[in-house]
Write a structure and sequence with these properties.
The complex is a heterodimer. By secondary structure, chain A is α/β, with parallel strands linked by helices. Chain A has a single domain, classed as P-loop containing nucleotide triphosphate hydrolases (Rossmann fold, 3-Layer(aba) Sandwich). Helices cover about 35% and strands about 30% of the residues of chain A. In chain A, a hairpin with a 2-residue loop joins strand 4 and strand 5. The longest helix of chain A has 15 residues. Chain B is α/β, with parallel strands linked by helices. Chain B is about 25% helix and about 40% strand. Chain B starts with a helix and ends with a helix. Classes of the chains: A alpha/beta, B alpha/beta. The interface between A and B is medium-sized, with 31 and 23 residues.
Chain lengths: ~260, ~450
């Protein structure tokens, strides 16, 4: 197996409504790796996640992103998902009237179809649900409800990881999955994510706080400040940030400028 | 009005034809209807209740009531091709407002339940019809009701005596093929009876046709009635419908309007909550595209205390279609503890589709809970992105959301076979309209 990177971000610049948010990000993630992207509020973390998933409203002004060797920006959001990119949303949207089971079965089968695998019938699908839902300690009755409707904050986040388990992505981007979670829910979510780790998949964990990284241990930590990666290091960098705060890096940035 | 002569000539024809067939009291009723119609004339947009619905194209259509029954080429196969053909229960077929015995299937019912054509009931003249017809749908206020009273041909006469119930729905199939039809239904659910009625209005007309249907419904104390009106007319047809429901103490009334198309359709739903403890739900879904106009106009008259009324109407408009929703809630002085709620939501699938929604609350009691809300909007972009981010294509995502919007209304249909078929029907229709609905 060649070690082609799963995703290669090169000098990515992007803006929203004319304001530049990402100012030249380069980042490469190889199979089997877990990368954490940390940074203070407004540093561009969630913008990076949104652009990778294909959300509208962002203008990429320079740079490139290759996903499994393809130009990511040539792909629609659904094509990215079918190729194996998954975004666990920071704020999963409630969709009244769309049944969770129906939605998830459609998603699973779209992705299987794309990979040339036969579609799952109702029985096979339910067997897969039963297997995966246990990982997240979620109640199966949630699947009878509309997508995310009436789910608690913790249930929404666990449900995102459950969807990830169902869709088996090559690259999972977790956008502040830890926000709003109590410690027990955080442990469950992290446990689920860790069980989904494979030699051929990778994870990009976006977080403000270090505490998630106690449970999902990154190989690399990137600190994003004002749209640029200010520093890259190992998992110890996260601990250093926790101890010293982002101010420490912000000051160094200011000195360097 | 300028064509008054035409209406008069047609009326003379009807009078000669029906002489001796109907009891003596019918003609004064009809004449009063005609006089009232002549006085009112067809409403114009200067009339507040018709502000958003211009009837000029209907007024241009020659007034040609269909006086005689003709099967007019309606085959069993054609009948089987209409929705709900497989529904269990009695089926009464009316072609251009005339009962078709050969195409209908009505079984005898125990307990004195009568399911028959109104013309047959009139001919038998049991007194029951006379006591009720024209007592609820009042000609004074509406030109179309007056016109119907003058020219009605046939419809259903359904009478459930106290405590009786029909387990299956009664399906009324109104087929228009030409001219103008004036069906009239009289449905009486005596105290503690239970009925489900499906009124479908469909068409095989090749040229513009017009329907002006009136249903009078009396729901007695503690009775439970579900009435669904399904409209799937031709793209060039005009359709005016009126439901006048008189609701007695502690009854439960569930009304659905499922309007899938006509060039111009207007459904007047007038309910009088005339007993304490009534529960009334008016539920509706309208789909329109191209140049269609679909108008729902309702009056919920809270005349007694402790009643609850809820209106839920969702509309999906594509192309250059127009939707109109006018919901008036009247709470009379003595109707304390009224709980009235009205919701009208509209989904516009194109830039050229429009909707006029007008809530109107008139409250004369001081201890009531009344709310209303209307929304007009497009599909939620966040929801679409979420679905797409899971591998679901843009078109499928849009369809899922549209279906969900329709599903909110369909889910309120209590009779399961009806609900399930309607769900499939709306789904298929949205798929058919895909080019119009989903490519914008």
């Amino acid at each position: 197996m060649t070690l082609q990177p799963i995703i290669e971000i090169e000098n990515l610049h992007a803006s929203v409504e004319g304001r530049e948010i990402l100012k030249g990000i380069s980042l490469s993630v190889a199979p089997g790796e877990v990368h954490a992207v940390m940074g203070p509020n407004g540093s561009g973390k969630s913008t990076l996640a949104a652009i990778l998933a294909g959300r509208e409203g962002y203008a990429v002004t320079a740079g490139s992103v290759r996903f499994l060797g393809q130009d990511l920006f040539e792909l629609d959001p659904e094509e990215r998902a079918r190729e194996g990119l998954f975004l666990a949303f920071q704020y999963p949207v409630e969709i009244p009237g769309v049944n969770s089971t129906y939605f998830l079965k459609a998603a699973v089968n779209e992705i299987r179809k794309h990979r040339g695998a036969p579609e799952l019938d109702a029985v096979e699908f339910l067997a897969l649900v039963k297997e995966k839902i246990k990982l997240l300690e979620l109640d199966e009755s949630l699947l009878k409800r509309p997508v995310n409707a009436g789910f608690s904050g913790g249930e929404k986040k666990r449900s995102e990881i459950f969807q990830m388990a169902m869709l088996e992505p090559r690259l999972a981007i977790l956008d502040e999955t830890d926000s709003g979670l109590d410690i027990d829910a955080l442990r469950i979510v992290a446990h689920g994510v860790n069980l989904l780790k494979r030699p051929e998949t990778a994870q990009l964990v976006i977080t403000h706080y270090q505490r998630l990284l106690n449970y999902i241990v990154p190989d690399f930590v990137h600190v994003l400040i004002d749209g640029r990666i200010a520093r890259t290091g190992g998992k110890d960098l996260a601990l250093e940030l926790e101890a010293k705060g982002y101010d420490w890096l912000l000051k160094e940035e200011a000195l360097a400028a | 009005m300028k064509d008054a002569d035409l209406y008069l000539r047609q009326f003379d024809h009807l009078e000669r034809q029906a002489a001796g067939r109907h009891p003596a009291w019918v003609f004064p009723l009809r004449k009063a209807g005609l006089a009232r119609f002549a006085e009112l004339g067809l409403p114009t947009t200067r009339h507040e209740d018709w502000r958003f619905t211009n009837l000029a194209p209907l007024a241009q259509l020659p007034f040609r009531p269909v006086f005689d029954y003709s099967r007019d080429g309606v085959s069993e196969a054609a009948l089987g091709g209409f929705p709900f053909a497989g529904l269990a229960g009695d089926r009464l077929v009316f072609i251009n407002g005339h009962f078709s015995r050969e195409l209908s299937a009505v079984r005898p019912h125990p307990g004195g339940v009568r399911v028959e054509s109104l013309a047959a009931a009139l001919a038998a003249d049991t007194g029951l019809v006379e006591r009720h017809i024209g007592r609820y749908a009042r000609d004074e206020a509406c030109a179309f009701t007056a016109l119907n009273t003058a020219f009605f041909t046939d419809g259903v006469f359904l009478h459930a005596p106290a405590g009786q119930s029909l387990p299956d729905p009664v399906h009324l199939v109104f087929i228009s093929t030409e001219g103008s039809a004036h069906p009239r239904n009289l449905i009486i659910a005596e105290p503690h009876s239970r009925l489900t009625i499906l009124e479908s209005h469909v068409s095989l007309a090749q040229a513009p046709a017009a329907t002006n249907a009136v249903t009078e419904l009396v729901v007695g104390e503690g009775a439970v009635v579900e009435h669904a009106r399904f409209l799937d007319d031709r793209a060039q047809s005009f359709h005016i419908g009126t439901l006048q429901a008189h609701l007695g103490r502690q009854c439960n009334f569930l009304s659905h309007s499922l309007a899938l198309g006509a060039r111009l359709s207007r459904y007047n739903i007038n309910t009088t909550l005339d007993g304490e403890g009534v529960e009334c739900v008016l539920n509706g879904l309208y789909l329109a595209n191209a140049e269609q106009l679909v108008d729902h106009h309702m009056v919920v008259d809270h005349a007694r205390p402790h009643c609850a009324s809820h209106e839920y109407y969702n509309g999906i408009l594509a192309g250059r279609a127009r939707g109109v929703f006018h919901g008036r809630i009247l709470v009379r002085k003595h109707a304390q503890k009224t709980d009235a709620k009205q919701t009208n939501k509209n989904l516009l699938l194109s830039d050229e589709a429009t909707v006029d929604t007008k809530p109107q609350l008139e409250i004369y009691a001081d201890d009531v809970k009344c709310t209303h809300g209307a929304t007009v909007g497009q599909l939620n972009q966040e929801s679409i992105f979420y679905l797409r981010s899971r591998g679901i294509g843009l078109e499928t995502a849009r369809r899922m959301l549209i279906h969900a919007f329709a599903g909110e209304i369909i889910d309120r249909i209590r009779h399961a076979p009806l609900r399930e078929e309607l769900d499939r029907l709306v789904w298929n229709r949205l798929e058919q309209h895909e080019q119009v609905c989903l490519t914008t």
